[in-house]
Each structure stands twice: as C-alpha cells, then as structure tokens.
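Hypothesis: this fold can be encoded by more than one sequence.
Test: take the structure tokens below, design a sequence, compare later.
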C-alpha cells in the first residue's frame, strides 16, 4: 500500500524508487531540482562526475552534464521561462547558465569576495529569474547576508541586506522566488522565516514560524512550496523540528504541512529537504542534502536517500 502524505487539497502518494539511474551512478545527494514544460526533471547533484542529471517524467535517465564546472558544493538550480537552467555553486562562488542539453551559456562570479563584505559573491545559495523583468535575483548566503539583482546578461543592478535579525537583514539567505508582481520571497533560513521584498529591495512583510526554510519554489498554482531543514547543531534527531514540506499562499497563509515528525529514509520521512520542484500535474519532487547532514557522520559514512517523488492524488 503506497504511503500518502499531506492534507486538504494537497495530498500526495510517495513513489518509491522513481529515479532510474545508469549502473554505477548515484546521486550522492540532491541539493537542487527543476522541472521543464515537458515535465522532464533536472537534478542538481553532488556527484561531481554527473552534476546535473536529466530524467523524463517516469524517472528514466536522459543525460548528464556540468562535469568540471560544478564542485562538491553544488547548491541550487532554477529553470527560467526562457528554458535556461541556472546553477548556483557555493564552492566555486559562481552562478552558471545552461541550455537544457548541457551547453554552458554564461558564468557570473567565480572568485570569492571577502566574507561579509556584501560584494558578490561569497558562497551563494540560489538564484531565480523574474517573470516581469527577466532579471536574475541571487541569494548570497553562507559568507554574505545579501540579495543581488543582475540583468540576464550578467550585469549587476543592486544589492540589499546585511547580517542581523531585523526586517531586511538576514542570517543565511538560502533561497529566492519571484512572482508575477516581482515580489521577491527570500528564505531567511537561520531566522526561521521568509521575508518579502519588492524588486528594488524594499521590505514588504515577513512570515515567521517556518523551520529553517531551505528549498523554495513558486509552483504552477501560484503557491510557495518550502522544504524545511532539520534541527540545528545540538538538536540532531529531535522530532518535529523541520524535515518537512510546507505549502503557503503568496500572502503567507499555510495551506498544508507534511512529513513524519522523525527524520529518516522510510516513505513519508525526510532528512534534509533542500530543493523543491512542482510539475504541471502538481507532482512534487524533493531533493535532500542527507549525506552532508547525516550520512558523512555515520560509521562508516554512506549515501542516504536524497530524492523523493510525490504524486498528487
């Protein structure tokens, strides 16, 4: 009997063993996920031999690309309206633009700015394209506390933010999404909140009580799908802290929240949700950084489950 998650209008069936990878190929872990108009799924992995893997909607492997460009800290993946993929790598301090066939089209960054200087980039985390202007918004998140706006050609427009807990400040801006009014949603992870800005960086509102928001995407239905990371240092294994998915309206109203209170690899459990994508049918794809969070500390270290497909029912 398949495991079912969710509540209300958002109910999902766990599809076990969905991804069909070539012999000897594994994900390592899956920090980013994106879906195109044909419901083909692009996985950003930390397998440096196959950093980006493309699968069809049934999970069959199509191709991989990005070897030699992404390192073991590949971090975020976004697919824009023009069909280009944008990859973010906090290890190389770079944002790269790709065709869906794997051609590298543009690189922004690549050299670290001084930590906490506010200048792009020091360990950026994610990027998204505005459907209004076509500009690129980047969260610069591990060695900075900023959001940067760039043109699609790679020219810097403006930046905002800084370290702190006040409105407009960040403690690890980890993900970004932009809606059709160019409202910019920023997952402010260690503040357990999402902050909302206009396209010029002016603060509009914040939503609290979201546990370490990690993955975030604006779905085809106009709602925000957010992956919440598990507990912080010292709270490992604590039940009910993160390792779940939340669905909110663009006004911040909670529509659904699901995931077993205990982290794990069983159907219906998560360890470290980090990348989220939604296809045209409402199916949900959750990528996790389960090796970084748990697997590498095991004796011996081992790869853990890092991808779940949830079929909407």
């Amino acid at each position: 009997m398949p495991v079912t998650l969710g509540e209300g209008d958002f109910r999902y069936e766990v599809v076990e063993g969905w991804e069909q990878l070539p012999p000897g190929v594994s994900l390592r872990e899956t920090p980013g996920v994106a879906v195109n108009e044909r419901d083909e799924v692009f996985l950003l992995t930390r397998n440096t031999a196959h950093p980006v893997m493309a699968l069809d909607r049934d999970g069959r492997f199509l191709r991989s690309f990005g070897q030699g460009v992404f390192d073991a800290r590949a971090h975020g993946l976004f697919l824009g309206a023009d069909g280009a993929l944008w990859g973010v790598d906090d290890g190389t301090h770079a944002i790269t633009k790709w065709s869906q066939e794997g051609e590298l089209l543009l690189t922004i960054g690549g050299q670290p700015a001084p930590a906490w200087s506010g200048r792009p980039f020091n360990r950026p985390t994610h990027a998204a394209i505005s459907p209004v202007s076509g500009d690129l918004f980047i969260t610069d998140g591990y060695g900075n506390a900023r959001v940067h706006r760039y043109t699609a050609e790679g020219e810097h427009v403006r930046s905002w933010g800084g370290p702190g807990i006040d409105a407009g400040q960040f403690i690890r801006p980890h993900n970004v999404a932009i809606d059709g009014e160019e409202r910019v949603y920023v997952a402010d992870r260690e503040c357990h909140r999402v902050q909302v800005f206009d396209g010029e960086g002016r603060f509009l509102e914040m939503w609290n009580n979201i546990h370490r928001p990690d993955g975030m995407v604006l779905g085809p239905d106009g709602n925000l799908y957010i992956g919440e990371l598990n507990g912080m240092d010292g709270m490992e294994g604590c039940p009910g802290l993160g390792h779940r998915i939340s669905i909110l309206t663009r006004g911040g109203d909670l529509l659904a929240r699901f995931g077993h209170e205990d982290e794990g690899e069983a159907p219906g459990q998560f360890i470290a949700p980090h990348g989220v994508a939604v296809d045209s049918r409402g199916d949900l794809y959750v990528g996790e950084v389960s090796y970084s969070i748990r697997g590498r500390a095991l004796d011996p270290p081992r790869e853990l489950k890092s991808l779940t497909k949830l079929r909407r029912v």
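Residues 4-312 form a domain with the Neuraminidase fold (CATH 2.120.10.30). The chain has one helix and 25 strands.
Hypothesis status: open.
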